[in-house]
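Why do we care about 3D structure at all? Because function follows from shape, and shape follows, mostly, from sequence. That is the central idea of this module. The next example makes it concrete: a single protein chain, its amino acid sequence, and then its structure expressed as tokens.
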Amino acid sequence: MSIRLFRSTAIVGIMTILSRLTGLARDIAFAQYLGSGLMADAFFVAFRIPNFFRRIFAEGAFSVAFVPVYSECEASGGEKHAKEFLDSMCGRLAIVLLIVTTIGVLSAPQLVTVLAPGFSSDPYKFQTTIDTLRFTFPYLFFISLVAMAAGIMNTKGRFAIPAVTPVILNICLIVAVLFFVPRAQNASVVLGLGVLVAGFAQLAFQLPFLKIERRLPTPRIRTHTTDQEIAASKTKKVFNLMLPALFGTSIAQLNLLVNTIIASFLVTGSVSWLYYSDRLMEFPLALIGIALATVILPSLSANYATRSVVEFSRTLEWALRLSLLFALPASVGLIVLSEQLMIVLFYYGEFSLRDVKMAGHSLIAFAIGLSAFIWVKVLAPGYFARQDTKTPIKAGIWAIIANLVFSLLLYRPLQHVGLACATSISGFVNAVLLYWWLRSSGIYRPKDKWAAYVFRIFTASLIMGVVLQIFVGDASTWIGRSGGMRVLMLIQWIVIAHLIYFASLYIMGMQVHRIFQRPVNE
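And the structure:
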């Protein structure tokens, strides 16, 4: 079981690396041509709004509601029933998306007023954000249909194509930055148009693969047969599950929106510093947390549908252990190398040394909560696979309250760094509650020796961090180096960090390969 899941996770991880590398290239281009000025702040806010809805609706609430119901349809009614369900789901989803997109475009001024109220003091910045949002918001329509296609492919065990699709967005934005932004009067609007083109291209890319799998939906709203009526009822079930899931899967995104709202009142650049540091956080979060969550949701759904409680618990146990194995050292590495990473990746063109320090500080604050963010991603499928979308809401409410309280307490003394600290605290609140309630329900039964496992990982990560802190040197010594030399230095220290970490685990007697191969203590 674990070998199959690890292989699938590795495939998603490799494709995710490709996606994140092109995303990194995109952000380097942003830093060089936009820096942290007015155009950067305007675009990042305009893109964050549809991105917020994409993550909670397309990749969040819809995915966690759709996959279990689709698996249920295939298990109970076969391919014909599943196809009827897909046709019904696609037709109704398209109608909902058209309505939401139209409302979003028409209410762009109100959205910017609510989500970036500080921009209203600068009329040009405010209007630029509105104009950009009117191009970026329709991206939601295309990417939500892409998410449905990804859900279908994932349930068939096809993980590579959905995982590589985000590369198209990055390529479109890189092309926009390199070839159109330098000649444009309004760089933010040009990038907004690039986002819209990318959404259409991502959907077009998925369609041939759905046809190969014989799962290309024919959108339908009306019902004429009994099978179609059953499919329509399953579609309604997905939407009913989505309503609470909209909140349960949106905690991190709601916290980022809170950060954006408060940061809009801080000095110019605050929104951009949080964006760049959050983007670096997305790399390990996607590679570890999202990859694992993507792979285990279909397995957990199948385990629960067949009442395989033992396999359900083993799958979750394996994912939690594997995620912690990589999350904790990644967190330490981001903390120790925060400014070095900013120098290597973004210290070009309009991105100043002050930007390096400010974004580096918020990266440290975000990195403290990395393990919690990843565990939230891994724990959530334990609820969604059982079609329980309500319990995560309870944890989410406490997490949002924690984020809001600590944001208000910390943003004055720590500025944008305080907002990042509040997000990390919120992540720990969310993860602890999800873990505790899942364990209390009896559906997850952790194995023994967790304390020893955590101690070894923590100790090895600490050893790695101390060595890096001593020998890497101050970030200022990297500034005088050429861009190529900085990259080589960073790669060198990342390789050394990995060797130190895994060597430390080996010396302490941990057999890492067993975690990849099968559930521990099986």
